[in-house]
Amino acid sequence: MTILPIVAYGHPVLREVAKDITAAYPNLDKLIEDMWQTMYASNGVGLAAPQINRSIRLFVVDTEQMFENMDAAEKKEFPGDTGIKKAFINAHIVEQDGEPWAYNEGCLSIPKIREDIKRPESVTLEYVNEQFELITETFTGLTARVILHEYDHLEGKLFIDHISPLKRKLMKGKLADISKGKIKVDYKMMFPG
Q: What is the CATH number of domain 7-180?
């Protein structure tokens, strides 16, 4: 198992639309295992392949750990959502539904920046699992939010694209520092250039 460096804001791979892959993709099992290790080593709850410099439609999500660390009152805010631990291959959104709601998000590729982002309550995805079986599944609450955040990476989008131009302008200096590697984090990063 290898802990991979996470691509920092400003790297062009984060703005590419990722490609579907086939079951013949080289060393896919190892790549998924490395992504889990990388995500846990950096205290993430999701990680998309573009964040490790691979422009393919693959991401992993573990929201079970979020629910394990919540108290009873917090869990009540997310009825029907107990979290998942899953790899998603070739994911495509079928439908988004429900009232958009705000939650404070961050991203391993954009460290030390957090913002309240509005996303729909549920998402229905079509994807293949690690055995390349086609699945259509609906996710809600916090799990849907993490999936939508990781899914954005496959579309070349970042969570900061969901905030107002004024807020983005105000964080321009911080974003420039991240892309120049002028930031300290406790996980391996790959900076542009």
A: 3.90.45.10
Q: How many CB atoms lie within 10 A of CB 114?
A: 12
Tens digits of per-residue pLDDT, 95-139?
Answer: 999 999 999 999 999 999 999 999 999 999 999 999 999 999 999
Domain boundaries, the chain: 7-180
* The pLDDT value given to residue 1: 83
Residue 7 makes CB contacts below 8 A (sequence gap 6+) with: 13, 14, 50, 51, 52, 53, 109, 189, 190
Amino acid at 120: P
Q: Which amino acids are annotated as binding site, given as ranges? A: 107, 149, 153
| Rounded Cα gap, residues 130 and 60, in angstroms | 11
**What tokens were used for 98?**
């429900």
The full length of the chain comes to 193
Active site residue 150: yes
Binding-site residue set for Fe cation: 107, 149, 153
Show Cβ contacts of residue 113 under 8 Å, excluding neighbours closer than 6 positions.
106, 107, 160, 171, 174, 175, 178
Query: Which pLDDT score is estimated for 78?
Result: 87
**Active-site residue, selected from the candidate residues 99, 126, 150, 155:** 150
